[in-house]
Amino acid sequence: MSSPVRLALLGCGTVGSEVVRLLHAQSADLAARIGAPLEIAGIAVRRLGRDRGDLPVDPALFTTDPLGLIKRDDVDVVVEVVGGIEPARGWLVEALRAGKSVVTANKALLAEDGAALHDAAAEGSADLYYEASVAGAIPLLRPLRESLHGDRINRVTGIVNGTTNFILSAMDATGAGFAEALEEATELGYAEADPTADVEGFDAAAKAAILASLAFHTRVTAADVHREGITEVTAADVASAKAMGCTIKLLCIAARGTDAAGRETVSVRVHPAMIPRSHPLASVGDAFNAVFVEAEAAGQLMFYGRGAGGAPTASAVLGDVVAVARNRLAGVRAASESAYADLSVRPMGEALTRYHISLDVADRPGVLAAVAGVFARHEVSIATVRQGPAGGGSDAELVIVTHVAPDAALAATVGELRGLEIVRSVTSVLRVEGGA
């Protein structure tokens, strides 16, 4: 058996501590798979005196000098589970340029400036692996990066945030409002004390950028992703979706398309949407994640599992560690970044989608014709209309579902509707996906 492969672990929180435990519990199996034992050379933490319970590691391995640890000659692989943009970016660029392979779970950094990491990896002829950055333990990025490399992916649709999926699933199951479902998610540990990154879609947008980059061989950043959260989804929206045979999910959607000049483009967006209950993603409940991939030759593929948590994420981290360690022993490097397509990212206004619009309108003759005229002026075709009584005796509710149209035309339609005297309020606007 070869000499040990030595790891520098940056971070020892929820995920980092599980990495240490799995390394200890599976040391013999991991050594057999790699052809060499894995050893922890050091663990960089913020505070040395923190109680870490029964963590099976020598306390002498802890340090508050991550850069010094990275630069040590006896470190082969750097594992980063700290998160955030800086100082993590500087640490990883330093490691990669020095020829040390990097395994990271840092979705925010990859989505904001993955280019810096890939360029540093190319400069240092080092491996950069990041399976744990999207969908926890689900084997997803490597199939996109390797298994489907001989195919053409046309669309990726996913539920990639467990917190929002738990909240929306609870609203669907119980009829609760957003605030009540969020409170339950917080009590159960699914939501952070500050849930903004989850409920406003920032977490999902970062993951969408990573998925789109791999699927379409194009550098996509979080800034390219249209993002909307779930804070405006109401119990009435959920009930309306049920009436249509749908459920509401926070989706990340990345798809190929063409612009007005016929040039190929990609669109990447994150927003709540109604999907039919027959769709494979509709049954994904609780805090689970799932990603639905549509490829030309392989057809439809579904990846499903736990998308977060210490142990699932650590499982993905260790899978990458095994891969980079084996490459290092064999003297080879994994395939480099594939961004040859360099497709432009289409603005959200050009994305083709459908709207579900609920209106509180005056209950008098000519209202439906006036509303339909607004849709006609913006060249948006109406698929269905449902009318019923609203809260007031002189009001009525109109629920309109459109055919597919550019998002800009749909948004302009809603904007004009808000200005009509006969429209008391636009009570809800949701996109519809998946053929509902």
Automatic annotation (TrEMBL):
<dbReference type="InterPro" id="IPR019811">
    <property type="entry name" value="HDH_CS"/>
</dbReference>
<dbReference type="InterPro" id="IPR002912">
    <property type="entry name" value="ACT_dom"/>
</dbReference>
<feature type="binding site">
    <location>
        <begin position="10"/>
        <end position="17"/>
    </location>
    <ligand>
        <name>NADP(+)</name>
    </ligand>
</feature>
<dbReference type="Pfam" id="PF00742">
    <property type="entry name" value="Homoserine_dh"/>
</dbReference>
<feature type="active site" description="Proton donor">
    <location>
        <position position="207"/>
    </location>
</feature>
<comment type="function">
    <text>Catalyzes the conversion of L-aspartate-beta-semialdehyde (L-Asa) to L-homoserine (L-Hse), the third step in the biosynthesis of threonine and methionine from aspartate.</text>
</comment>
<dbReference type="GO" id="GO:0009086">
    <property type="term" value="P:methionine biosynthetic process"/>
</dbReference>
<dbReference type="GO" id="GO:0004412">
    <property type="term" value="F:homoserine dehydrogenase activity"/>
</dbReference>
<protein>
    <recommendedName>
        <fullName>Homoserine dehydrogenase</fullName>
        <ecNumber>1.1.1.3</ecNumber>
    </recommendedName>
</protein>
<dbReference type="InterPro" id="IPR045865">
    <property type="entry name" value="ACT-like_dom_sf"/>
</dbReference>
<comment type="similarity">
    <text>Belongs to the homoserine dehydrogenase family.</text>
</comment>
<keyword id="KW-0915">Sodium</keyword>
<dbReference type="InterPro" id="IPR001342">
    <property type="entry name" value="HDH_cat"/>
</dbReference>
<feature type="domain" description="ACT">
    <location>
        <begin position="356"/>
        <end position="431"/>
    </location>
</feature>
<keyword id="KW-0521">NADP</keyword>
<dbReference type="Pfam" id="PF01842">
    <property type="entry name" value="ACT"/>
</dbReference>
<dbReference type="InterPro" id="IPR016204">
    <property type="entry name" value="HDH"/>
</dbReference>
<dbReference type="InterPro" id="IPR036291">
    <property type="entry name" value="NAD(P)-bd_dom_sf"/>
</dbReference>
<dbReference type="Pfam" id="PF03447">
    <property type="entry name" value="NAD_binding_3"/>
</dbReference>
<feature type="binding site">
    <location>
        <position position="107"/>
    </location>
    <ligand>
        <name>NADPH</name>
    </ligand>
</feature>
<comment type="pathway">
    <text>Amino-acid biosynthesis; L-methionine biosynthesis via de novo pathway; L-homoserine from L-aspartate: step 3/3.</text>
</comment>
<feature type="binding site">
    <location>
        <position position="192"/>
    </location>
    <ligand>
        <name>L-homoserine</name>
    </ligand>
</feature>
<comment type="pathway">
    <text>Amino-acid biosynthesis; L-threonine biosynthesis; L-threonine from L-aspartate: step 3/5.</text>
</comment>
<keyword id="KW-0560">Oxidoreductase</keyword>
<dbReference type="GO" id="GO:0050661">
    <property type="term" value="F:NADP binding"/>
</dbReference>
<keyword id="KW-0028">Amino-acid biosynthesis</keyword>
<keyword id="KW-0791">Threonine biosynthesis</keyword>
<dbReference type="InterPro" id="IPR005106">
    <property type="entry name" value="Asp/hSer_DH_NAD-bd"/>
</dbReference>
<dbReference type="GO" id="GO:0009088">
    <property type="term" value="P:threonine biosynthetic process"/>
</dbReference>
<keyword id="KW-0486">Methionine biosynthesis</keyword>
